[in-house]
Amino acid sequence: MNQGAPKPPPSARIGRTSRRQAGVSRRRVRAAALAAAVVCLVGLAREGAACDAILGQAYSDPPEVPRFALGSSELDPSPSELDPSGWEVAARLRDLAMARKHWVRPGATLRDWKELLTWKVSFRSRPQALARTRDLLLVELRRKCDSLGSREIASEEDDLLFEWWHDGCYGRPSQHELVRLVQGVIGTHQLSYAQVGERLSASERERWSRRLGAVVLESEIPPSAGAGVDRARTLYWHGRDSEAIELLEPLAERGRADAQEELAGLYFGRWDLERSLHWFRKAAEQNRPEALYHLGRMHENGWGMRAPDRAAAIDWYHAAAERGHAGSRVRLAQLAISEAQPDATAARTWLEPAVASGDVEAMIELARLLERPVAEKSEGAKESGHPRSDDLGGADDLAAWQLERAVSLYRRAAVEGASAAQFALGRSYAEGRGVGQNDAEAVHWLVRAAMQGHEEARAFYVARYREMGSRTTN
What we know:
By secondary structure, the chain is α+β, with helices and mostly antiparallel strands. It has a domain at 64-219: Protein Transport Mog1p, Chain A (3-Layer(aba) Sandwich). Helix content is 53%, strand content 14%. The protein starts with 9 loop residues before the first helix and ends with a helix. The model is unreliable at 1-26, 42-50, 52-57, 70-81, 374-397 and 469-474 (pLDDT under 50).
């Protein structure tokens, strides 16, 4: 320090000391949060509170939850199996997209459980066919487990019970799981009982099938006094699909575009593709952007028709995008990148307006695009709002700028509850890619993604932070 410089007044010196102390305090808080998160995700925690704390928010039940009260003993001779004294909450999460709870036996953890009860609800705007939900779950499981077997146990329109098992996958021993899917008011609920080791015996399988089947959903959502299409939407939420169809069909026949679109969406959720295609076409004739987009999806995948038609799909996506539909812009960008000669400039042109409108999927896609290596200098990049390498001093600077913006986009989408963005943001913090390296922030976002079922986030977390978790808990 310059000897001639005046000394700061005592108040300033105290302020500096306080700031240093505050910095130490914040670092301790972050370290404590990191330790709690490690404990939670690796499965060392014995109380759900440890997992709640890392999320930075208090858990609260959504307006519709399962109740495990089994009723009379005639249903099951030992209903006490599901008494609170027999199970402990190992983890729970409430996000913008879903709510989830895990229960284990007293003394067990998420790492060493032998029996696991799980409830998850995915919030949706309209019901989805439960058979479709089941098939998607099994496809994802089989993607990483060749020995996986499955069987349907019971099925109704809004209630489906099935089982799956494997002989050892995901680095875990053999597992047998019963899953019940229920269409509720706020979304699709998934209730499951899992056991590791030997397959469930016939009597155990029957007992747990009855227990899961006896769970009831309790809803606090009051009936709506609305009419017309609004009333039909309320009926969706209450699972009264048949009444919604009866209400919508006359309106759709009279040419109400919003009724046609809602009816098409309802049939699509039921996987009645021919009727869905019919009503989406009717709504598209009136230039409804959502209907135009769904026609693109149906032509691209061949849903409700003999074969896929990529050219027609692109035409429908263009029509929807021209009317401001963000999802169509995202899909056109994805198609531009998937061509034999990827067109990153065209993809950015489609994505930027969708990002500006707040579309979460567009944020994730643009962030992924920005992470791609860029070697050329592009006038198109300048026109789309991205500086050329000339403006930033070279390709390395451009790459750094891109990574920083990618992190910003991932953060925006992660806050909205997108697990893919949460994983990408956590990985960026862990690797110091586009942002300063920060283990506490990395753990925070990786945990949030993993607790939504994002397997890559969980695998990355365990590979990078499990040793740290062991140190923090010793």
